[in-house]
Amino acid sequence: MSNPYKGRTGLDRILRAAGYSIAGLRAAYSGESAFRQEVWLLIIATPLAFWLGQDWVQTTLLLGSLVLVLIVELLNSGIEAAIDRVSFEMHDLSKRAKDLASAAVLLSLLLSAGIWLTVLWQRFGATA
């Protein structure tokens, strides 16, 4: 049996995929407080990254690390939604999956913090 949603090609496929992506971003923003907080962090930090970064590599690392946090948060939310769709019943595997996804968010936040602290140190803390 073939999937009726897989037959789209060309511009139609691109437009539909973009629509699904926008719907996902809206759902995450309206339904996930952590995602909302991380979006606002990115919005506030963007001008700071352009000021703080001493070249385009540093600026890209600063902003890219925050975008990575959003990506991992979206994956975490997707995993949680899929598990909740199957059952709200407490199960060891469900807990494990949610804990692993949450750990991925934590690691992405730590990576981002490390990048920001490194750039801050290079800019203000390192002595010449």
Explain this structure:
84% of the residues lie in helices and 0% in strands. By secondary structure, it is mostly helical. The model has no long low-confidence stretch (mean pLDDT 93).
| Uncertain stretches of 5 or more adjacent residues | none
Mean pLDDT: 93
Number of helices: 4
Q: What gap, in angstroms, lies between the N and C termini?
A: 67 Å
**What general form does the structure show?**
globular
Could you state the oligomeric state of the chains shown? single chain
Give the DSSP E fraction (strand runs of 2 or more residues).
under 5%
Structural class: mainly alpha
Order of helices and strands: HHHH
Helix fraction?
Answer: over 70%
Task: Sketch the major β-sheet.
Answer: none
DSSP strand tally: 0
What Rg do the Cα atoms give?
19 Å
Write out key terms for the chains shown.
single chain; 128 residues; mainly alpha
Give the gist of this structure.
The protein is mainly α and about 130 residues long. The protein has helices spanning about 10-30, 35-50, 55-85, 90-125.
Topology:
Layout: H1 10-31, H2 33-52, H3 56-86, H4 92-125
